[in-house]
Specification:
The complex is a heterodimer of chains A (289) and B (293). Chain A is built from eleven helices and two strands. With 289 residues, chain A is mainly α. Chain A has two domains: 36 residues; 237 residues, MetI-like fold. In chain A, strands 1-2 form a two-stranded antiparallel sheet. The radius of gyration of chain A is 24 Å and the shape is globular. Chain B has two domains: 132 residues, D-Maltodextrin-Binding Protein, domain 2, CATH 3.40.190.10; 140 residues, 3-Layer(aba) Sandwich (D-Maltodextrin-Binding Protein, domain 2), CATH 3.40.190. In chain B, the strands form two sheets. In chain B, strands 1, 2, 3, 4, 6, 7, 8, 9 and 12 form a nine-stranded mixed sheet that branches. In chain B, strands 5-10-11 form a three-stranded mixed sheet. The chains are: A mainly alpha (289), B alpha/beta (293). Chains A and B meet through strand 1, helix 3, helix 8 and helix 11 of A and helix 1, helix 2, strand 2 and helix 7 of B.
Chain lengths: 289, 293
């Protein structure tokens, strides 16, 4: 009774074809990730040791470890987070919870989109002009981290605003109807229910901050520094720049060292991402709705 | 519910406090930036100087001579490294900003011409180089130099050069072409000396140039004649010291004003026999003949 017509069969085979095509494309997406990780582990793995992680470079950066770069990257990321998270979350709270839909709000939204589109090297030049020279921070962790913070602000704002908006409006209305103020509502209802999304944004920012090279190379990261940084006004080595210089500037670096540095850098980022996923799962488990 | 945030904030605060708290006595930080030619020596100096005194930290950055000089003009650096002399207009700009640059010659560098290791050419003159690199020069093919490099069937000379904020770029241009003539278009302009060497190592048709210190085993360096029929001199540290190699140049460090304190001590150490021997080990020529064995 419902025998397949020629047309049905043709539709079905076209359907199957597209399914395979899309599946293939999706698999292609995984391929680079697997290849990159595979190459890094295969070629960089032999370089990794406790000594590599915990000692400074020696012999003209051809031997020894990467400790100053590792610590330097942690400094840069932490200071950038301290600057950008409060500003970003506050801005997102305003835009999501307070802002009326007027010309100012639209201008702010436009500014955020444009800020996200500015190339990182332009942020670097801005950082040199503003923080290094105008504010007289000199080339320092502070200047580099503030540059990174400005660069990653849009990520924090957009992801925070999106996670604030996943909290149903009914929650807020219920709270207001009990006589709570806007701030009480935000603190007791909106933030607790959106914290997992906010944290995801923060961790995305960490990943991006740790890997950036251009914004820090003129503002605070150095080719070599024999000691660990002691304050935010010191300059520091950083993983991303270290990878760049040993690959392009330093002669006679053993071949596995740049791969080792890349492997450590990507492991840091993946570990942060893993942490964010674990944290999100934990918080989602506690969600009551 | 809000505890995760609080925990996070406390953790961050603890990390920052921990990092800030582990400092011993405060130390002087010398900011040293500039020439890519000098950056590896500058790094070696900084590394060794950390063993001499723990009270001074030398932070080294590269970027090119132009980068160091503009940092000197802007006053964001204590010592600028340069593989060329500051120009009069650069000196004026620095003085206008209140930084009077003082010049130190910290060593000499022989600029070697690099060829692929299979390239049979072992002997070149400055005129030949000018004809290859200079605007209006007619040498485009290896056969014009009477060689046929193996692995280079196209016969075309692949010219490798440097980006134009490189001191090496300016010095080579002046030494080969004089200060009036410019480079031919169409060269591959690399970002660092190591990139030049890497490219020439893997390109049978290529010719490049950089500081002698960047030479590797897989590269051939022809001897250079200052004039047609003159002596052909190999690029070595010895020929750079005695001045017989025709493309050898001084390397500079600039300080803003007469240096004092930690910067003075560091420069004295760089110019001492110990500092000069480190320079020698890195493949550069010290300011005077000295025994580093």
């Amino acid at each position: 009774m419902f025998e397949a017509t020629a047309r049905n069969r043709r539709n079905q085979s076209v359907e199957g074809g597209f399914r395979l095509l899309f599946l293939w494309m999706t698999c292609m997406l995984i391929l680079p990730v697997v290849l990159i990780l595979g190459v890094l582990i295969y070629r960089g793995g032999p370089a990794i040791s406790y000594e590599f992680l915990l000692t400074p470079p020696t012999d003209g950066m051809t031997a020894g470890g990467i400790l100053p770069a590792l610590i330097g990257t942690v400094w840069l990321v932490v200071v950038a987070l301290l600057a950008s998270v409060p500003v970003g979350v506050a801005a997102a709270l305003y835009l999501s919870e307070y802002a009326p839909d007027n010309r100012l709000t639209r201008a702010i939204n436009l500014a955020i989109i444009n800020l996200a589109g500015v190339p990182s090297i332009v942020h670097a030049l801005f950082g040199v002009g503003a923080f290094v020279i105008f504010f007289r921070f000199g080339t320092s962790i502070l200047a580099a981290s503030l540059t990174l913070a400005i660069m990653t602000l849009p990520v924090v704002i957009v992801s925070t605003r999106e996670s604030l908006q996943t909290v149903p409006r009914a929650f807020r209305e219920a709270c207001w109807n009990m006589g709570a103020t806007r701030w009480q509502t935000i603190r007791k209802v909106v933030l607790p229910n959106s914290i997992s999304g906010i944290l995801t944004g923060v961790i995305l920012e960490v990943s991006r901050t740790a890997g950036e090279t251009a914004p820090i190379m003129f503002t605070g990261a150095v080719f070599f520094s024999p000691f660990l940084p002691q304050s935010v006004l010191d300059q520091t080595m950083a993983m991303s720049l270290h990878l760049f210089v040993i690959q392009t500037q330093v002669p006679n670096v053993p071949e596995h060292v740049p791969f080792g540095v890349a492997l450590v850098l990507i492991s840091m980022v993946l570990a942060m991402n893993g942490l964010s996923i674990a944290f999100r799962v934990y918080l989602r488990g506690r969600k009551k709705w | 519910m809000i505890h995760p945030i609080r925990a996070g904030v406390f953790a961050l605060a603890a990390v920052v406090a921990g990092c800030a708290g582990n400092g011993e006595a405060t130390r002087d930080v010398i900011q040293n930036k500039g020439s890519d030619t000098l950056v590896n020596v500058a790094q070696a100096w900084a590394e060794e100087y950390a063993k001499v005194t723990a009270e001074t930290a030398v932070a080294v950055s590269g970027g090119g001579s132009g980068t160091g000089i503009s940092a000197m003009i802007n006053g964001t650096v204590d010592i600028a490294n340069s593989s060329r002399r500051m120009t009069d207009s650069e000196l004026e700009q620095a003085r206008a900003n209140g930084h009077d640059p003082i010049e130190y010659i910290v060593g000499f560098d022989a600029l070697a011409v690099f060829l692929h290791e299979d390239n049979p050419l072992g002997d070149m003159s400055l005129d030949q180089l000018a004809d290859i690199y200079g605007e209006g020069g007619t040498t485009e093919r290896w056969s014009q130099l009477d060689v046929a490099p193996p692995g280079c069937p196209s016969d075309k000379i692949v010219r490798v050069s440097r980006q134009n904020n490189s001191g090496t770029y300016f010095y080579y241009r002046d030494a080969i072409l004089g200060d009036q003539r410019d480079f031919k278009l169409g060269s591959l302009d690399m970002h660092g000396s190591k990139d030049v060497v890497d490219l020439v190592e893997n390109t049978p048709c290529a010719i490049g140039y950089s500081g002698l210190a960047y030479a590797t085993e897989h590269i051939s360096m022809p001897c250079i004649r200052a004039s047609e029929g003159g002596d052909c001199v190999d690029p070595t540290v010895a020929t750079a010291i005695d001045g017989s190699y025709p493309i050898s140049r001084p390397l500079f460090m600039y300080t803003a004003g007469e240096p004092e304190g930690a910067i003075r001590e560091y420069l004295d150490w760089v110019l001492s026999d110990v500092g000069q021997c480190i320079l020698h080990q890195k493949g550069y020529a010290p300011r005077a003949v000295l025994d580093c064995s």
